[in-house]
Write a structure and sequence with these properties.
heterodimer, A: about 240 residues, Alpha-Beta Plaits, 2 domains, two-stranded antiparallel ribbon, 8 helices, 10 strands, B: about 120 residues, about 60% helix, binds iron/sulfur cluster
């Protein structure tokens, strides 16, 4: 009975007709009563440092781990989603070859967010760039804006998604930095899967974190640093 | 003001009319047990909870376990097939079909209980 009273009172108070509006005060109460999580904090900036000298040519473990974790097919046709790819690069002047993983760079100033007409493409307070698929209309502007070709469009209906990783046809998606794992205190799947420990995950803002210490002590680069996007993914040995 | 009272009256009447309806959906409530909120309140308001809190979860990282879709599925997925959508009398499907309200949630979200989904993945 008390719930009904509450609804009635808020009806009277707000004098707005829609039930959705009337519910809001009730919801506040529940949240206060049950709210334990702090949510994403802007004190934190999640990032990864990829040591290309440790990344083995031909190894695909990070990619497989990502596919498994996020329920991607693992196919690489033009219409298949790829959140992380291994790329091979070669310096033609001296023949030096490198193999490294490439994914959404979780830019501090993400062009994909700038162009999105619906605010679906967004950056969380802790630096993780995501697509809010509840809002995404599938226009794919963000795919064109991303300098790293990091995003994929879901072309076909999907079934049997990971309960922690909703994905669906008509929306754009990309590496989420395994946000569902981070929020449980786990590392991203690729970082965990790499036997050579080539992918170091951590908080770039925490001076005592392993990643911040390493960034202080070795030479690292951001891919296309000239664009000034201040990426959260850094590379060593490029 | 009159309008408000009428809509309120309507809100209260729908569940009552429902209780009297012999064709009311018979649903598989899964494990069931004590709902996280009053069941009658939930019947009317679950969509508002899901809709408001999804924004908090995705955009702010505020994950309220209690009111999460995953938590709904944990209790209400059928004990036979671990799903809230697999059959005509599955928890979400039976009411939504009866009320002719399309559910979009499961075009992206899994309708499976997580433990069952994990088991299935490991078996593959
Ligand atoms: S790498 Fe691309 S998708 Fe990722 S944040 Fe930057 S612009 Fe956006
Ligand atoms: S495809 Fe979706 S996320 Fe990308 S720009 Fe369009 S609405 Fe935004």
């Amino acid at each position: 009975m008390s719930d009904i009273d509450l609804t009635r009172r808020s009806f009277l108070k707000t004098s707005a007709g829609a039930a959705a509006v009337a519910i809001a005060p009730g919801m506040m109460l529940f949240q206060v009563a049950h709210g334990d999580t702090q949510g994403a904090s802007d004190k934190v900036r999640w990032g990864m440092l990829i040591d290309t000298t440790q990344c083995k040519d031909g190894c695909n473990d990070c990619v497989s781990a990502c596919n498994k974790e996020n329920g991607l097919s693992g196919e690489t046709k033009a219409t298949d989603s790829q959140w992380i790819r291994k790329i091979e690069i070669k310096d033609v002047s001296n023949g030096r070859e490198l193999s490294l993983p490439m994914m959404c760079q979780h830019c501090e100033h993400p062009p994909c967010v700038d162009v999105c007409p619906t605010n679906a493409s967004m950056k969380r307070a802790d630096g993780i760039v995501l697509v809010d698929k509840h809002r995404c209309i599938g226009c794919r502007y963000c795919m064109m804006a991303c300098p790293y070709k990091a995003r994929s469009f879901v072309h076909e209906p999907l079934t049997d998604q990971n309960p922690d990783v909703p994905r669906g046809k008509g929306t754009v998606e990309a590496c989420t930095l395994c946000v569902h794992r981070i929020d449980q205190g786990l590392k991203p799947a690729c970082s965990e899967a790499c036997a050579n420990k080539a992918i170091l995950f951590g908080d770039l803002n925490d001076a005592d974190s392993e990643i911040a210490k390493k960034l202080r002590s070795v030479a690292t680069t951001q891919v296309r640093a000239d664009l000034g996007l201040n990426t959260g993914i850094r590379y060593q040995g490029l | 003001m009159k309008k408000l009272f009428f809509s309120l009256l309507l809100c209260l009447c729908i569940p009552m009319a429902w209780a009297a309806d012999a064709n009311a959906p018979k649903l598989d409530i899964g494990k069931g047990g004590q709902c996280v909120e009053d069941p009658q309140w939930m019947r009317k308001n679950h969509m508002h909870l899901l809709k408001h809190e999804r924004d908090d979860a995705v955009r702010k990282g505020l994950r309220d376990e209690k009111h999460s879709l995953k938590n709904c599925i944990e209790c209400h997925a059928s004990t036979k097939d671990d799903s809230v959508i697999a059959r005509d009398d599955s928890f979400c499907v039976s009411c939504h079909r009866y009320e002719a309200v399309k559910i979009d949630c499961f075009e992206c979200h899994s309708g499976k209980r997580k433990s069952a989904w994990l088991q299935q993945r490991e078996a593959k």
